[in-house]
Design a protein that fits this description.
The chain is an alpha/beta fold and 450 residues long. 43% of the residues lie in helices and 17% in strands. β1 and β2 form a beta hairpin. α7 runs antiparallel to α14. The longest helix has 25 residues. The protein is flat, with a radius of gyration of 29 Å. It starts with a helix and ends in a 7-residue tail after the last helix. 37% of the residues are buried.
Length: 450
């Protein structure tokens, strides 16, 4: 790990926005941010004499006094900034030359390039964000659907943290009462009513269970729904993929075996991201290349949340397909335009013509129903992070152990230690309990400038 990632007094610099637009923001943050900015920015007055939350127009100049760009500077004074440090954000014209020059000049005057996630890491270390809210920053940036954005925004605004804080407050109260009993152990005084203690532990357990049960849906909403389109060769899998996403993503041919590798494409249905995988046709073959494609088909099926099994209306027979109980298996009869078959859904079989667009809306509706977003509201606390789920699982195990300890009339000091294990695992989520390795792993996934 770089030393300056731990040294929050060092002034860091990086682009805070992506390249490609007309304008770009360069962010400076740290103890000397304003001093460094004053050495490279010429405005109506020095920034060091300006108030926070103010904008300033002027020029960026290099060491020789040459103007590089006319810019707008936003000034944020500690501790009222994202990182808690003095921060200067310079809006420049998004030229590759201007960007590299502004960064070079800042570094020349004493700044260092920020590492991935370093601004948000500093916000966490300064107490501006807890760890779960810091992770939500990255999730908001990566969100690619309405629901993944909604989950990340709720977490970023602190609803998730508030729920965990309430659970920790209840548990800390229990620990305090149990540990108070130790000071009066010779008098055999019981400050923590065991019936009330059990009730509180059970209530905390219900809350943890509720959070854990949301993970399955939360993980899908965050990362998208994997849909494998399978079937024998020439039943219209590629045509269906194109129809579902509204684009000619996959090559279509009447020649069996045209698709020899998996082809992926995404679309959004009711605010949820779906990732469709067009696979090689399932059949016995001596063609080594085609067999490799079929092997990949089976791997795609294993990863899928939904399996769309296609067959043709000309010969509507489905091979037996193995799938897990956790996967949704939907049978689809395609090419009904070539027969007199009705397009009405028959039980769990959907009838379509991917070529003519018949029944595609009905299939989309069925796909949308698989992800039961009706069970959550916008703003609901939903767990979508595997690290959080793992910590909740450990906390729940420690809670069950605490309840068993009560059944066995375990002494107050040991019972208190069991409850502190629950606190420990919940604290791992919000960052009250953490390690340098965990922080490095989390913030290394951020982009530079965030």
């Amino acid at each position: 790990m770089s030393l300056h990632q731990l040294d929050t007094d060092t002034t860091i610099v990086a682009p805070a926005t992506a390249s490609g637009g007309a304008m770009m923001v360069i962010r400076l943050s740290g103890r000397n941010a304003i001093d460094i900015a004053d050495r490279m920015f010429v405005g109506s007055k020095p920034l060091k004499s300006a108030k926070g939350y103010t904008l300033h127009y002027g020029d960026i100049i290099n060491e020789r006094g040459e103007t590089i760009d006319d810019v707008v500077v936003a000034l944020f004074r500690a501790p009222h900034s994202y990182t808690g440090d003095d921060t200067v954000e310079i809006t420049i014209h998004s030229s590759e030359y201007i960007t590299s020059e502004v960064l070079r000049i800042a570094i020349h005057h004493g700044a260092v390039m920020a590492l991935a996630g370093e601004f948000t890491r500093r916000a966490f270390l300064a107490g501006k964000l807890d760890l779960s809210r810091a992770e939500a920053v990255a999730d908001i940036i990566a969100s690619d659907s309405r629901w993944s954005h909604s989950i990340a925004t709720t977490q970023m605004r602190g609803a998730y943290s508030a729920k965990l804080a309430a659970l920790r407050a209840d548990l800390l109260k229990l620990c305090s009462l149990l540990e108070l009993e130790l000071d009066f152990s010779e008098e055999d005084v019981e400050f923590a009513d065991r019936t009330q203690l059990r009730t509180i532990l059970q209530n905390v357990g219900h809350e943890i269970e509720s959070l854990m049960s949301s993970f399955s849906l939360g993980n899908i909403l965050k990362n998208g729904v994997n849909v494998a389109i399978i079937g024998e060769p020439n039943v219209g899998k590629s045509t269906l993929l194109n129809a579902l996403i509204g684009d000619d993503r996959a090559m279509v041919s009447d020649v069996a075996g045209t698709t020899r590798d998996t082809i992926e494409a995404t679309t959004t249905i009711d605010g949820v991201r779906y990732r469709f995988v067009d696979t090689a046709g399932l059949r016995d073959t001596d063609d080594r290349l085609e067999q490799m494609g079929i092997d990949r088909t089976h791997r795609a099926m294993e990863r899928a949340h939904i399996i769309l099994h296609l067959t043709s209306a000309e010969s509507p027979i489905f091979q037996d397909i193995e799938h897990s109980s956790e996967q949704r298996y939907i049978r689809v009869i395609n090419k009904i335009d070539l027969t007199t078959s009705s397009d009405k859904t028959d039980g769990d079989i959907v009838k379509i013509s991917a070529k003519e667009g018949i029944g595609i809306d009905a299939l989309r509706t069925m796909l949308g129903e698989v992800v039961n977003i009706g069970t959550i509201d916008r703003g609901s606390v939903v767990v979508s992070n595997m690290r959080h789920y793992s910590a909740l699982d450990k906390a729940y195990g420690a809670l069950r152990q605490s309840l068993e300890a009560m059944d066995n009339a375990t002494p107050s000091d040991l019972l208190s230690e069991d409850i502190r294990q629950i606190l420990h695992h919940l604290g791992e989520i919000t960052g009250e309990i953490t390690t340098t390795d965990i922080l490095q792993n989390i913030f290394s996934k951020f982009c530079i400038g965030k």
